[in-house]
Amino acid sequence: MTKLPRMPPRPLLREADTPIRSKPRRRRNPAQPQLPLDPMPSRIDPCLALLKPRPPKGPQWVFEVKWDGYRLAVHIETSRVRIVTRGGHDWTERFPAILAEARRLPVSTAILDGEAVVLDERGRSDFGMLQQSLGGRGGKRTSREAIFMAFDLLYFDGHDVTGTELSSRRHLLEGLIPQASEDAIRLSEEIEADGERLLRIACEQHLEGIIAKDRNSRYRSGRLGDWLKIKCIQSDGFAIVGYQRSSAAFGNIGALLLAARQGEELVYVGSVGTGFKADEAMKLRTMMDKIKAARPAVKYSGRRKNLIWIKPTLVAEVEYRAWTHDGKLRHASYKGLREMADNANLYEIA
């Protein structure tokens, strides 16, 4: 079994002029009142973070590192453990280390919300490494390197706790996961800091960004503003609608042509021509050549030559710095393919 990467202590806290510390944990009260049991749901649609340009201010907001991986829910049931993706797919067998650790947690029934990640040598989540460990997009490989960063608790010992405030849910979650754990299930620590300063440190250490959560909010499915994400570099999903053929580029892909969603239509938002690795580009080219289209899925008035149009069924994760005045991506870099069913939400133009 591959040894799990050792997580450096507090990757956000190094090289800071004043230490930033995780919120201290409180001990669980074993004399808590007995409540009627609630049926355990087979699935709960996740609470999603709303993108904001800067961190919120106010005492009700708490912060965490933003992890870059696959959103999962770990269902610990009386007779089994299930690991369910954001889209409702059962990926239990694909994360054997997480599965084994979930069985060891001191709880009879629970639903943990979190992110499966693979960490680099500095303790940062790396989506490319996670995809590689799973055999690439559409791959069927099991990942023994992936760990689960738990950040919420939705069901606990027979009780649905989604209606309680975040601070109470976190209090219960902290009692389940050992402090400073280096096992396959770890706690995504809350960090006590000013949001602006925390974001600055996160960006200096090349993390993706931070998450802000309303400590008084109950768990609500969807993107309703109880959770906010603030990124160092913008990163979103865009449909690949074609590519420019180039004999000088990896996989003969000079650039991918991208689209975002606007209402019920796809709108061309520019291209991305950097960030490809040789082996990934070859696989991507093979996939695209199987879904060629006779005409583009978007209105295109550019002057590029040697364009190959494809059906818009592949979703690329793309990092970018900003938007141009005419609605095109600036300084875009290809990051990888997202699973259509789970992490492939397209960027939506307002």
What's the rounded overall pLDDT mean? 88
Number of helices: 5
Strand-and-helix sequence, N→C? EEEEEHEHEEHEEHEEEEEHEEEEE
CATH topology of the largest domain: D-amino Acid Aminotransferase, Chain A, domain 1
Q: List the uncertain runs.
A: none
Major sheet details: 6 strands, mixed
GO molecular function: ATP binding; DNA ligase (ATP) activity
EC number: 6.5.1.1
Catalytic activity: ATP + (deoxyribonucleotide)n-3'-hydroxyl + 5'-phospho-(deoxyribonucleotide)m = (deoxyribonucleotide)n+m + AMP + diphosphate
Pfam families: DNA_ligase_A_C, DNA_ligase_A_M
In short:
Belongs to the ATP-dependent DNA ligase family. This protein is α+β, with helices and mostly antiparallel strands.
Summarize the topology.
Elements: E1 21-22, E2 50-51, E3 61-65, E4 70-76, E5 81-85, H1 96-104, E6 110-117, H2 127-133, E7 147-156, E8 159-160, H3 166-176, E9 185-187, E10 191-192, H4 195-204, E11 209-214, E12 227-231, E13 234-245, E14 253-262, E15 265-272, H5 278-289, E16 307-309, E17 315-320, E18 322-323, E19 329-330, E20 333-338
Parallel strand pairs: 2-12, 7-9
Antiparallel strand pairs: 1-10, 3-11, 4-5, 4-6, 6-7, 7-8, 11-12, 13-14, 13-16, 13-17, 14-15, 17-20, 18-19
GO biological process, one term: DNA recombination
Region (Disordered): 1-42
Biased composition (Pro residues): 1-11
What does this molecule look like?
There is one protein chain. By secondary structure, this protein is of the alpha+beta class. The chain has two domains: 44-231, D-amino Acid Aminotransferase, Chain A, domain 1, CATH 3.30.470.30; 234-338, OB fold (Dihydrolipoamide Acetyltransferase, E2P). It contains five helices and 20 strands. Strands 4, 5, 6, 7, 8 and 9 form a six-stranded mixed beta sheet that branches. Strands 13, 14, 15, 16, 17 and 20 form a six-stranded antiparallel beta sheet that branches. The radius of gyration is 21 Å and the shape is globular. The mean pLDDT is 88. Residues 1-42 are annotated as: Disordered. Belongs to the ATP-dependent DNA ligase family.
